[in-house]
UniProtKB/TrEMBL annotation, chain A:
The chain crosses the membrane at residues 27-48, 88-109, 121-141, 179-199, 219-237, 275-298. This is Sugar ABC transporter permease. InterPro entries: MetI-like, MetI-like_sf, Sugar_ABC_transporter. Residues 84-296 form the ABC transmembrane type-1 domain. The keyword Membrane applies. It comes from the Bacteria.
Automatic annotation (TrEMBL), chain B:
It comes from Neoroseomonas soli. Residues 72-259 form the ABC transmembrane type-1 domain. This is Carbohydrate ABC transporter permease. GO terms for biological process: transmembrane transport. The chain crosses the membrane at residues 12-32, 71-95, 107-131, 137-160, 193-216, 236-258. It is a multi-pass membrane protein.
Amino acid sequence: MEGTASLAGTAAAGAAPRRRRNYARHYWWFVVPCGAVVLGTIVFPWVFTLYMSVHEWRLGGGRSWVGFANYAKLVEDERFLLSILRTLYFTALSVLLPMVLGLLAALAFHRKFPLRGLARTIFILPMMATPVAVALVWTMMFHPQLGVLNWLLQQVGLPPSMWVYAPETVIPTLVLIEVWHWTPLVMLILLGGLASLPIDPYEAAKIDGATPWQAFRHITLPLLAPFLVVALIIRTIDALKAFDTIYVITQGGPGTASETINIFLYLQAFAYYNLGYASAVVVVFFTIIIALAMVLLWTRARVKDA
Amino acid sequence: MRKVKRIAGNIGFGFGVLMLVSPAILVFLWMLSLSLKTELDNTDYPPVFIPNPPVMDNFAAVFERNDFVKYALNSVIVSFSATGLAILFGVPAGYGIAKMKATKAAVVILIARITPGLSYLIPLFLLFQWIGLTGTVAPIIITHLVITVPIVVWIMMGFFEGLPPELEEAALVDGATIWQAFRHVAMPLARPGITVATILSFIFSWNNFIFAMVLAGRESRTLPVAVNNMLTFEQISWGPLSAAALLVTAPVLLLTLLAQKQIVAGLTAGGVKGG
């Protein structure tokens, strides 16, 4: 790009040679205003959180330097450690199920059929809907006595469930909503992947008499692998970040049965006002996510090469 | 025989597609059904599915009791401002990053995009307290930039990278400044990208709950917070609650239906290219 530009510059025979020489530097001015915004709203919070995490910092109660005491306390805080386990449980299910369903949906929407556009639009609606609004409707559907879901279970001869009202069923139930919400995003990523696949291997396979299953297993899956990895990582990050639905429906309850890291963090910061301690939680959580970001970038590079 | 098999296969496929889309349809239809029924029908068991006759009382109740119009106005102000500012700052930034191939700048955007929103809130909450902004919509708009700016920069970066550079170069040769080349050559070409970025950042700002929940006072609540408060603080009646939920999410659902092509393009690109 810059090579072509300087060639063009020479061709223009000194019309404005000075400007062209400092080509790249001028473009900084396009980035500076936005850089200031990012610095103020994104980078400042990161740095300030680090600073707060080494203080005992209570809202309205002053602050004092405590070194790494907040972190030491975290390692021994059983409630925090359990919240990590719950987050992993929730994340594992919320990644696996949308991946499987999203792949099936992408394969279905890759085929041509009547009303495909409409069906696809309806399918992606949950992803765009306001999470809080949908969470309220789910809450009503989960009602143990009057909810429509227990009525449906009864119709097919299954025993009623306590849904979000019992410790054993609360996380799988929240996963159900997460699956409903985010399977469409997995589908869209994989659908984009399917659209980019070459057709030659399929024609060759057809000539060689491969069954559709063999073609899927030995051509589609390997070629789709980079997209599957990207979907997997995006889904993992989003599942770790899940907050709205859990907070609106259970606020971590019953008891602490659905208290994930994010809910624990929220309660520490804005219910108990332990701002220093909550900041330490943010730093730990952030580290986990940065590690995932590295994997994401690495995957992205590989997808681009492929 | 083969024909029968094919028809059976098609019916099976059709059934499969129906299974895929029915959870989406049924939840929204149930939301609509709850919002159009009387309280008596809503708490009946077995459930009443078709409102008979449909009543508008629940919607009337929402508008009467809950300062709904004020909160809707807040939501509109916040989402439009956060989107507008993001476009204003983000479109040139996306252009600059694309031109300089500044992948390091892109990493910051990427990390911002995947950091949980909650982790920005503690320092920003303190900051807004110190400078005395709490209780107005200003802090909510500013925090929404955390969501909208990365979306816009990311989409525009990808879009400008994909534009052929020849036209701008021709303009530069003709003596245009790089700002003019951006403003009059690159930006008109990038209009579809700007549309996608605007729609997506508006939707995600509109849907956002957590920033306003922590930062908003009684006067500055956005719709998602107002609706959540209906659940928490008032006596729960399903009809008005569903009506409010439906009103909150209707604008984004409508936008999705109208602009589904752009949304699909934006999300696929955003997803595959690393957002």
